[in-house]
Specification:
single chain, two-stranded antiparallel ribbon, 11 helices
């Protein structure tokens, strides 16, 4: 019986099989890109729905007048109630952890604070699941036969730690992206607030106007300003609306704006001049950040230049000369 010769291998893997897998992944990515391009959804729809829900809650009187600085609204559903009951039965649900998780969800743009219990559940379930997978990979199978017991233990510990940190890493990534987008549009938003204040608009009308103008360019910032405008219209104390804005955004610049707004409300200082000074400071900060990135660019480009650009350049320049020398000296006929 004639057997087909084995195909080429790369690092112990069949090249044909590996190529087929990569082609399948590429085809799936192309189909996903086509589906995403065809089913384009309006990004404003979800945000408008969330803002309308907040407006209806405030109209219904869910927010009560109290001496607390911030009123927290936590909606309820069956899934989160079951998770909360499960965690309370295990005595692992702490109010401090729950409040921190709710704030991180708010900073990530997730309005449903009741899902904070899911983060705590993920911290508990993740190490168990990934620990079982790591134990099967490093101790029960032959995937890493050359590894020493110390390496196996370190791999198992890495799986457990990653399982515990993965919910926080996911939420932190969302918070970082949202914060960067808000930071980009904050100077422009302050300029528009100055124009609205000088035009004679009230604070809530100015926030609403800025939210409409910046909703397309900076949707995250427009969402926060629109929600602040709604709370300014319905909350009994306007200070709570500004404090809620600082609570939802993990940015020192926004906290400075909130402090300025509270002081102008309390002492009656000119709002336009204070916002103009803050806008100039934020623009200078953004310029300094851009200059810092530009100053780091030569150091960052050194390693790619040495590894990828200079070898190719040497081959292009010295290749023809070396071929000519080889033809004239080595391959020269006697």
């Amino acid at each position: 019986m004639i057997q087909n010769p084995p195909g080429p291998t790369l690092l112990g893997f069949d090249v044909y099989l590996l190529g087929s897998i990569l082609i399948g992944i590429a085809a799936a990515a192309v189909l996903l890109a086509i589906y995403a391009a065809i089913t384009v959804r309006d990004p404003m729809t979800k945000r408008v729905k969330a803002l309308n829900e907040r407006r209806e809650q405030l109209k219904a009187g869910i927010v009560t007048n109290s001496a607390r600085k911030r009123t927290s609204i936590v909606r309820r559903n069956q899934t989160t109630d079951q998770i909360r009951g499960f965690l309370e039965s295990l005595k692992v649900l702490q109010d401090s952890q729950l409040s921190v998780a709710q704030q991180r969800l708010a900073q990530a743009g997730i309005r449903k604070k009741e899902w904070a219990v899911a983060i705590i559940l993920g911290r508990m379930i993740g190490p168990i699941v990934l620990g079982i997978i790591g134990g099967l990979m490093f101790y029960m199978s032959d995937m890493f036969p050359d590894w020493t017991p110390f390496k196996r233990f370190m791999g198992f510990a890495a799986c457990v730690i990653f399982g515990y940190k993965s919910p926080d890493i996911f939420v932190t990534n969302l918070v970082s992206k949202r914060t960067n987008e808000i930071r980009k549009g904050l100077p422009d938003a302050l300029d528009l607030l100055v124009i609205c204040a000088e035009a004679g608009l009230t604070v809530d009308a100015a926030f609403n106007r800025v939210a409409r103008e910046l909703g397309r360019a900076y949707p995250e910032l427009g969402d926060e300003f629109a929600l602040t405008a709604i709370e300014l219209s319905f909350l009994t104390e306007r200070r709570h609306a500004f404090e809620n804005l600082a609570y939802r955004v993990d940015l020192d610049s926004v906290k400075g704006v909130v402090t300025t707004m509270i002081q102008t409300e309390r002492y009656g200082t000119p709002l336009a001049s204070a916002l103009r000074v803050l806008s100039a400071e934020f623009r200078n900060e953004r310029m300094m950040r851009a200059e810092e990135k530009a100053a780091r660019l030569p150091a960052i480009m050194t390693i790619p230049l040495i590894l990828f650009i200079l070898p190719v350049l040497f081959i292009v320049i010295l290749g023809p000369a070396s071929c000519s020398i080889s033809d004239s000296l080595i391959n020269k006929k006697p």
